[in-house]
Amino acid sequence: MEKQRIYITRSLDEAVIAPYANLFEIRMWEKEEEPVPREILLEEVKNADGLFCMLSDKIDDELLQHSSNLKVVSNLAVGYDNIDLDAAKKHGVIATNTPDVLTETTADLGFALLMATARRIVEANQYIKTNQWQNWAPYLLAGSDIHHKTIGIVGMGRIGEAIARRAKGFDMNILYHNRSRKPVAEKDLQATYVSFEQLIGEADFIVSVVPFTPETSKIFNEAAFEKMKQTAIFINISRGATVDEDALVEALRTNKIKAAGLDVFEVEPITNEHPLMQLDNAVCIPHIGSASEETRTEMIQLCMDNIAGVLNGTGAKTAIQ
């Protein structure tokens, strides 16, 4: 019996996919850090039963029309705004993602980014690298305290709650805004539900963990930055398109807010010529929220399990509803 075919849009460690090689015919794009060209992807999906894709891969009606055998698309991420879910449903394709397994790792990164931005860690490292450290001074690279400050979390899902748990360890006052109230988080973490406007006006640290939707598109805009404290620090580990980057650059340049730490951008990748990269009070990192070796391996295994489950008839573990 002919094996069902899986196409993977990046080069992955053979050891991770080896357990599935006896069950399926697996093909991979040859490069790890470069996306598969669109024309090659369209050609490969013609014969694929399962597609293992990344956030940068656009899974739309055009692609699904090319793939009459396709039964499942497995996205290596929690987010899935790269997938046209209506088109997938129309073509009878199950879409899956990787929730839960990356929650704690992404929260680690989010809080690390908050700390690095507040305490000017990147600037301080560069200060030594460029041989500027000649003497000690009382306010040399003085940043902002984190402990006992107010953190405002926009988007209180799994990752938002994990960040709140970390904030609790720093004796922070926790505000949150979400589409729905979270009574358990309010009880266990003493988190306070507030409106978006109240949160951005009162928080010392504003952390964005919201999914990208039409409602959250550029929710952090000029008006939002105007309402923040001048000492506020903005952290984004959600989606770049939730932020008006021009407005953020202006807010940072004119000291309307103190600093920003960003793991995601409206158009990725960015280069060192991006306006945010010209600012000392912006810490920019290349979308590495879940990038620990352990977690990425778990995510890949979950993607493969989702595909295998659909193809062998037992069902996906984490289908997108």
Question: Your description of this structure?
Answer:
- This protein is α/β, with parallel strands linked by helices and 321 residues long.
- The protein has 2 domains: 4-99 and 293-312, Rossmann fold; 103-284, 3-Layer(aba) Sandwich (Rossmann fold), CATH 3.40.50.720.
- Helices cover 35% and strands 15% of the residues.
- The chain has 12 helices and 12 strands.
- The chain has helices at 14-21, 38-44, 61-65, 85-90, 103-118, 121-129, 158-169, 183-189, 196-202, 222-227, 245-253, 293-312; strands at residues 4-8, 24-28, 50-53, 72-75, 94-96, 150-154, 173-177, 192-193, 205-208, 233-236, 259-262, 282-284.
- A 7-stranded parallel beta sheet has the order 8-7-6-9-10-11-12, with helices on both faces.
- Helix 11 links the parallel strand 10 (233-236) and strand 11.
- Helix 5 (103-118) crosses helix 7 (158-169).
- The protein starts with a strand and ends in a 9-residue tail after the last helix.
- The mean pLDDT is 97.
- Belongs to the D-isomer specific 2-hydroxyacid dehydrogenase family.
- Residues 111-289 form the D-isomer specific 2-hydroxyacid dehydrogenase NAD-binding domain.
- Pfam families: 2-Hacid_dh, 2-Hacid_dh_C.
Quick recap:
The protein has 321 residues and is an alpha/beta fold. 35% of the residues lie in helices and 15% in strands.
